[in-house]
Amino acid sequence: MKRTNSKLKSKAGCVAARLTGMEQKQVLERAEASGLTVSEWVRQTLLETLYTSPQELRLMTFIAAEGAALRLAMEEWQQGRHLTEPDVRERIERLSTAAGLERAKATVSKLDIARRENGEAA
After folding, report:
1. For a Cys staple, 61 with which of 9, 24, 46, 99, CB 3.0–4.6 Å?
2. CA dihedral angle for residue 98, residue 106, residue 29, residue 34, rounded to 10 degrees
């Protein structure tokens, strides 16, 4: 799809984020796999998150943690390490907890910003 100047002008805001080298590589890989530019992929992903309910986000976080734990387990298995089911479950729980902590930190940050904007003490 060819872009027009009027389409570009209709988007007035810009959001920037700093990423580690590994995060940047993963974003690039996801964008390429989706057939989108990095900007298009990030925008689409961000907007999907905005319009997703907290319950859906929790479920997606759990599924992502489960997938990450299974990938780690597979890597360890390929290296000849023996993993039991409790080992894999512990990894899933740890990754889910870490994701939950990140969500909580983001929520606290949003609340702090809202309080400052409303002139309230933090």
Report:
1. 99
2. 120
* CA angle centred on 16, ends 14 and 22, rounded to 5°: 145
Taking the alpha carbons at both ends of the chain, their separation in whole angstroms is 47
Domain ranges of the chain: 18-51, 53-122
pLDDT digits (tens, 9 = 90+) for 66-79: 777 778 777 887 88
Cα(62)–Cα(56) distance, integer angstroms: 10
Ranges of H-type helices in the chain: 5-10, 21-34, 38-50, 54-78, 85-117
Give the Cα separation of 6 and 48 in Å (integer): 24
* Distance from C-alpha of 33 to C-alpha of 93, rounded to nearest angstrom: 28
